Write a sequence for this structure.
C-alpha cells in the first residue's frame, strides 16, 4: 500500500482500516502510558524513601551532637 | 521533626486510576462510524490531542507528586525536580511516538510542520538519525568499549528472565499478548486456557502440548520485548536505530547513490559491484561474497515471481517496474544486511556463527529443503509469497546480535536478547517493510523475528482470505519453517564461529579444555591471558599467511580480548557432534505434517567423545532435539546407541541399532545415522578433516581417552558383579599412564583403597574419576607446563608482596 497523503486514501475499506489503526495506536499508547505511570510512581516512591532515610540520618546526627554537647 | 506526606505516591496512583475510570462515557477513541476522509481527519486530530493531553497530565501529576515529596520532607528539592522533569520528558516522548504513528495511520492529516518524515529507505532514515544523534552514538561506543553497557544491562537479559517477569505480572503479560493477537487479527486462546498457562508459568512448569508451548513462548516473549523497550527508553541501549546507524557507517554507505534497475540481471550486477567493494576492503572474503550473491539472487527471483501482477491485501497495485525496483532494493539491502552481520560477527564470541555460514549455508539452505518438500505435500497451504517472507526473515532474524549491548565487552548475556533488538529493528523500519511486503507481511516479519528462537511445527494452518490478485500469507507456516531451520543450526558445519574453523585454534581450545579438566574447572586469569596470547599468535599467523584480512584479524582480536572464556571452549567443542544432513517435511500416519531431520555422527564426534566425554560430543544434537520437545530421559540412551553403531560392522545389527536411533516428538522426527567423514560437499569438508586430524593428534598425545575408558568399563558391569580386583586393575593401569610425583602417587593409593571398598557404588566411582581426572601424563604435563608456571607465579606474587 502506497501511503503519504489524503489523496491516496481512496476507498472506504482503506479509511476503515486506518481508523482501526488509530484506535489500536491509541490503545497501545494508553497501555504504555499506564506502564510509565506505574514506573514513575515507583521512582517517586523510591525517592521518598531515600529522602526519608536521609532526613532520619540527619536527625539522628543532630540528636547525637546535641546529647554529646550536654 | 519533618512532616511525612499524608499521601504516598502509590496511593496517588490508585486515586488517579479511579479518577480515569470515572471519565464520561463516549470519550474512547472509536473507529466505528468513520467512513470518509473528513471523519478520519477529525479522528486523527482528536486522538493526537488526547495523546498530548494525557502526556501533559502525566507531566503535571509527577511534578505535583515529586514537589509534594520534597516539600513535606523539607529537603531533596533539586532531586525531585530533576526526576519530575525526566519523567515528564518520558511521557512526552511516548506521546510524540504515538503522534507520529497516528499521523501515518491518518494518511498525512496533520499540518506540514507536524508531519513526521516517512522513511521507506533504510539508509535515508539511518543517515538522518545518525546526524541527529552523534553525541549519543559516541557515548554508547565508549560504554560499549569499557563494558559499562554490560554493567547497566544487568546480569540477566530480558529473554532469560521472561518467565519470571511474566510470573510476577501475569495479567499484564497475558494482556499484552492478547492485545497483540487482536491487533493483528489472530485467533485468541480462551480465557481458561490462558489462566491455566499463567498458573503453569507461576509454578515454573512448561506445558507439554506443542500448541501451548508456542503460546507460552510467544506470550512471554512479547512481555520480554516490552521490558527491552524500557532498557531502550532508559538509554541503556540505542536499539534498532543504533544498528541502522552502525550499518551505515560500517559499510561506508555515505554518498552511495540510489539506482534504478529494469531487470534482475541489472539488480544482481549492482549488488555484485557493491559486494566486490566489501571484499576489496577486507570486510568479506570471496567465498562469503559468493554466498551472499547466491542468497540475494534467489531472493530477487522469488520476489518478482511472487509479487509481479499482484497487490498486497488492501494495498495499491504496483507496476511491473515498481515491483522490479522493490526487488532490487530488497536484494541490495539484504546483501548489505548479511555483509554487515558477517563483518560484526567476527568481533564477538556469541556462541555460534551469525554471518554467511548461519544465514546462507545453514538457514537458507535448509529452508530451501523444507520448502522443496512442502511443494510436494497435498493440502499444505504454501505459496510463493510465503517463500519470500521466509527468505527475508532468515536474513533479518539474527540482526539483533549486532546491537551495541551484544557487541559490548562482556555482552554475552545481552546477546540473548537479540530477538528483541531484531524486532525493534523491524518495527522502527516499518515503512520500509510495509512498502516491500504489505502491512500483513510487515506484521509477520516482526512476529517471526521476535519469536524465531522457539520452534513451532504447525503446517496445517491457512492464510486470510484474499481478494482477486491480492496476496496474503500463511503466518504459522512461515514461523514454523524459520524456527525449525534456526534451531537445527546446531553443528559445526553451519554453526562454528569463524575463528574456530582453523585447526590451529582448535589446538588452543583443546589445551584450555585439558587445563580446565585437570584443574577442577578453574582457569586463573593469568592462565586465561596466556591462552588469549596463544590465540592472538594464531591470528598473527593467519594474517601473515594471507588467510584473513587485517579487518578480520582486528575483529578476532577484539573477540579474544573481550569475550574469550572457558565457556567459549565448551560451546565450540560441543558443536563437533556431526552434521545435519537433510531436512524434509513429511505427512505422518495421523495426518499431521512435521519435519523429519537426518543427523549424521562422524568420526570427529567419536573423537570428541573419547577425549572429552559423550555428553560434550552429542551436545549439539541433544540441544536441538530438546528444542523440539524430546525429553532428557528419551535421549539418555542415545550416546550408548551411537557408540554401538560406531563400532558395529554387522549390517543386520547396524540396521537394528539404526531403528532404535529414531526419535519422534509431537513436533519433529530425528533419524541419527553414522558416517566416517562429514560428507559436506565444499571446503567445509577439508576444514572438518583438518580439525579431525587435530583431535587424532590430541588423542595420541594425551591419556584422556584411556582414563575415561577405564571407568566406563567398570560402569558397564552390573554393580553386584563388580569385585575389588577390578579396582586394583584400574589403579595399576592408571599408575602406568600417569607421571606422578610422590604426593600424587600417595593420593592414587588412597583413591585405590576407597575404590576397592566402593566398587559397587557408582557415586564412589564418579567421585574417584573426578579426582583422578586431575592427574596428568608426562606429555600432558609438558603440554600444560607454560600455563601451570604462569599460575604458580600468580600464586607466589601475593605471598611475596
Amino acid at each position: 500500500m502506497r501511503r503519504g497523503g489524503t489523496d491516496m486514501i481512496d476507498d472506504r475499506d482503506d479509511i476503515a482500516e486506518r481508523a482501526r489503526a488509530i484506535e489500536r495506536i491509541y490503545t497501545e499508547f494508553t497501555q504504555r502510558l499506564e506502564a510509565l505511570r506505574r514506573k514513575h510512581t515507583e521512582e517517586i516512591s523510591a525517592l521518598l524513601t531515600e529522602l526519608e532515610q536521609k532526613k532520619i540520618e540527619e536527625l539522628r546526627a543532630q540528636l547525637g551532637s546535641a546529647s554529646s554537647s550536654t | 521533626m519533618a512532616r511525612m506526606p499524608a499521601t504516598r505516591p502509590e496511593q496517588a496512583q490508585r486515586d488517579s486510576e479511579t479518577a480515569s475510570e470515572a471519565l464520561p462515557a463516549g470519550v474512547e477513541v472509536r473507529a466505528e462510524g468513520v467512513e470518509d476522509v473528513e471523519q478520519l481527519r477529525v479522528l486523527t486530530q482528536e486522538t493526537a490531542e488526547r495523546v498530548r493531553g494525557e502526556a501533559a497530565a502525566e507531566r503535571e501529576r509527577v511534578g505535583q507528586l515529586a514537589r509534594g515529596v520534597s516539600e513535606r520532607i523539607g529537603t531533596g528539592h533539586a532531586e525531585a525536580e530533576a526526576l519530575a522533569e525526566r519523567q515528564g520528558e518520558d511521557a512526552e516522548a511516548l506521546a510524540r511516538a504515538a503522534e507520529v504513528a497516528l499521523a501515518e495511520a491518518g494518511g498525512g492529516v496533520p499540518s506540514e510542520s507536524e508531519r513526521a518524515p516517512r522513511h521507506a529507505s533504510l539508509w535515508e532514515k539511518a543517515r538522518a538519525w545518525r546526524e541527529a544523534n552523534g553525541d549519543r552514538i559516541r557515548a554508547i561506543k565508549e560504554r560499549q568499549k569499557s563494558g559499562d553497557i554490560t554493567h547497566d544491562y544487568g546480569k540477566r537479559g530480558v529473554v532469560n528472565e521472561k518467565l519470571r517477569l511474566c510470573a510476577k505480572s501475569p495479567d499484564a503479560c497475558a494482556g499484552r499478548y492478547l492485545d497483540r493477537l487482536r491487533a493483528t487479527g489472530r485467533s485468541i486462546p480462551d480465557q481458561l486456557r490462558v489462566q491455566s498457562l499463567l498458573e503453569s508459568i507461576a509454578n515454573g512448569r512448561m506445558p507439554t502440548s506443542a500448541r501451548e508451548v508456542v503460546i507460552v513462548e510467544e506470550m512471554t516473549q512479547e512481555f520480554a520485548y516490552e521490558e527491552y523497550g524500557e532498557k531502550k527508553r532508559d538509554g541503556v541501549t540505542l536499539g534498532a536505530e543504533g544498528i541502522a546507524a552502525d550499518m551505515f557507517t560500517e559499510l561506508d554507505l555515505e554518498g552511495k547513490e540510489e539506482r534504478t534497475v529494469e531487470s534482475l540481471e541489472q539488480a544482481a550486477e549492482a549488488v555484485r559491484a557493491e559486494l566486490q567493494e566489501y571484499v576489496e576492503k577486507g570486510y568479506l572474503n570471496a567465498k562469503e561474497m559468493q554466498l551472499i550473491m547466491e542468497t540475494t539472487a534467489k531472493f530477487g527471483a522469488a520476489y518478482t515471481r511472487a509479487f509481479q501482477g499482484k497487490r498486497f491485501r488492501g494495498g495499491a497495485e504496483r507496476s511491473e517496474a515498481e515491483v522490479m525496483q522493490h526487488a532490487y532494493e530488497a536484494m541490495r539491502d539484504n546483501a548489505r544486511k548479511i555483509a554487515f552481520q558477517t563483518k560484526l560477527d567476527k568481533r564477538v564470541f556469541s556462541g555460534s556463527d551469525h554471518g554467511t555460514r548461519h544465514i546462507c549455508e545453514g538457514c537458507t539452505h535448509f529452508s530451501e529443503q523444507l520448502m522443496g518438500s512442502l511443494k510436494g505435500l497435498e493440502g499444505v497451504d504454501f505459496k510463493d509469497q510465503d517463500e519470500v517472507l521466509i527468505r527475508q526473515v532468515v536474513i533479518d532474524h539474527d540482526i539483533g546480535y549486532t546491537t551495541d549491548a551484544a557487541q559490548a565487552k562482556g555482552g554475552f548475556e545481552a546477546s540473548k536478547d537479540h530477538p528483541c533488538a531484531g524486532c525493534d529493528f523491524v518495527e522502527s523500519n516499518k515503512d520500509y517493510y510495509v512498502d516491500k511486503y504489505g502491512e500483513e507481511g510487515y506484521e509477520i516479519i516482526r512476529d517471526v523475528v521476535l519469536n524465531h528462537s522457539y520452534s513451532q511445527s504447525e503446517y496445517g494452518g491457512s492464510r486470510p482470505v484474499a481478494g482477486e490478485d491480492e496476496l496474503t500469507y500463511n503466518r504459522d507456516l512461515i514461523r514454523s519453517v524459520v524456527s525449525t531451520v534456526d534451531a537445527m543450526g546446531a553443528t559445526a558445519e553451519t554453526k562454528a564461529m569463524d575463528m574456530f574453523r582453523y585447526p590451529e585454534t582448535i589446538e588452543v581450545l583443546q589445551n584450555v579444555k585439558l587445563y580446565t579438566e585437570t584443574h577442577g574447572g578453574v582457569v586463573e586469569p593469568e592462565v586465561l591471558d596466556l591462552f588469549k596470547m596463544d590465540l592472538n599468535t594464531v591470528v598473527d599467523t593467519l594474517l601473515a599467511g594471507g588467510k584473513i584480512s587485517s579487518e578480520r584479524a582486528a575483529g578476532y582480536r577484539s573477540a579474544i580480548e573481550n569475550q574469550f572464556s572457558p565457556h567459549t571452549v565448551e560451546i565450540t567443542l560441543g558443536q563437533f557432534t556431526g552434521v545435519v544432513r537433510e531436512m524434509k517435511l513429511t505427512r505422518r500416519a495421523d495426518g499431521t505434517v512435521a519435519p523429519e531431520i537426518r543427523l549424521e555422527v562422524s568420526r570427529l564426534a567419536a573423537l570428541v567423545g573419547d577425549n572429552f566425554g559423550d555428553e560434550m560430543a552429542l551436545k549439539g544434537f541433544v540441544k536441538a532435539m530438546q528444542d523440539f520437545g524430546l525429553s532428557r530421559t528419551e535421549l539418555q540412551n542415545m550416546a550408548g546407541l551411537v557408540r554401538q553403531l560406531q563400532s558395529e560392522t554387522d549390517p543386520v545389527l547396524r540396521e537394528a541399532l539404526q531403528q532404535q536411533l529414531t526419535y519422534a516428538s509431537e513436533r519433529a522426527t530425528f533419524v541419527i545415522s553414522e558416517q566416517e567423514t562429514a560428507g559436506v560437499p565444499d571446503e567445509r569438508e577439508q576444514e572438518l578433516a583438518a580439525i579431525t586430524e587435530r583431535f587424532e593428534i590430541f588423542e595420541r598425545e594425551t591419556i584422556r581417552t584411556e582414563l575415561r575408558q577405564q571407568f566406563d568399563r567398570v560402569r558397564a558391569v552390573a554393580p553386584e558383579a563388580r569385585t575389588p580386583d577390578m579396582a586394583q586393575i584400574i589403579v595399576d593401569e592408571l599408575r602406568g599412564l600417569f607421571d606422578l610425583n610422590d604426593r600424587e602417587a600417595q593420593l592414587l593409593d588412597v583413591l585405590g583403597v576407597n575404590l576397592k571398598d566402593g566398587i559397587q557404588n557408582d557415586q564412589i566411582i564418579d567421585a574417584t574419576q573426578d579426582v583422578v581426572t586431575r592427574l596428568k601424563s608426562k606429555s600432558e604435563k609438558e603440554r600444560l607446563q607454560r600455563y601451570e608456571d604462569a599460575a604458580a607465579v600468580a600464586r607466589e606474587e601475593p605471598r611475596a608482596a
Remarks:
- Residues 142 and 714 of chain B are 56 Å apart (CA to CA).
